[in-house]
Amino acid sequence: MITKIRAANLPSSLFPPWFSSLLVPPPFFPALPVDTSVGLSKSSQALKLDLEEKLFGQHLAREVILKALTGFRNNKNPKKPLTLSLHGWAGTGKNFVSQIVAKNLHPEGLKSNFVHLFVSTLHFPHEQKIKLYQEQLQKWIRGNVSSCARSVFIFDEMDKLHRGLIDAIKPFLDYYEQVDGISYRKAIFIFLSNAGGDLITRMALDFWKAGKKREDIQLKDLEPVLSLGVFNNKNSGLWHSGLIDRSLIDYFVPFLPLEYKHVKMCVRAEMKSRGFTIDEEIVKRVADEMTFFPKEEKIYSDKGCKTVQTRLDFH
Ligand SMILES: Nc1ncnc2c1ncn2[C@@H]1O[C@H](COP(=O)(O)OP(=O)(O)OP(=O)(O)O)[C@@H](O)[C@H]1O
Could you say which residues bind ATP here (predicted)? Predict the structure, then answer.
């Protein structure tokens, strides 16, 4: 599913018109604008605050993302780019968090020249064009990292990304000091997918049924779950790509399914961002319109907070 934000910030064709200028190999890359605020835009404290205030119901994702980003930014000499793999049900905040991270590094977020979002089904829809996509993608990454070492690349719908394209980006994710004269070690790659989302949900449901608190779910509880749903799942996209075998993913970040109370929090946040006074009656009405599963218990929103914005329009 493509959100408004993504569609609004993406070129209509695969790459913008000036892309062809990047086809010249280094050192002849044209000078793209240089971001002087790179890495200094906000402190880790600001990221922490953003995650605490804006991201609802995701205590594990909050913890892992903060740890990963803080560690990476404090490391003056990283040995490889930072690679995060975000997993979870639809509408639970994977794109939302990627945007928070991107904004933290580059204040303009998705609008920055140094943040790049690829959506598999939008940008790489035709299997027969894989060779072309591979070439363009590699040149795009190379060109942009040579312009800004701390470029951020977000790949949405990773589970739908053709294996050939994962192979194309693999060299950039590795521990090489340089590839063709360029170091990729300060770049950040974020992969988003629904793979493992059903298993994460089942785990959350088991906790709920056992009367345990959601916040008591720990990363170690989810490791075997992710291992089954992602690491050893031939359909997850990552499995047969060699990314996992070669330890090229630094952090797996699980997103839990969102409950009624989280949906209400999303409604309030949306009202606030539109400058409305919070009206609890409307908050309840919007949340009540969402559908919840499993059939019997009705605990988790089946679209997370995804349709909150449009539903609010009706009220
Ligand atoms: N955990 C959350 N906390 C706060 N807001 C959220 C959360 N999850 C979703 N939202 C809101 O819902 C919108 C849609 O969520 P988002 O696009 O991040 O979902 P997603 O997990 O990427 O879904 P998909 O897998 O379908 O792409 C976000 O822009 C945000 O406004």
Answer: 88-95
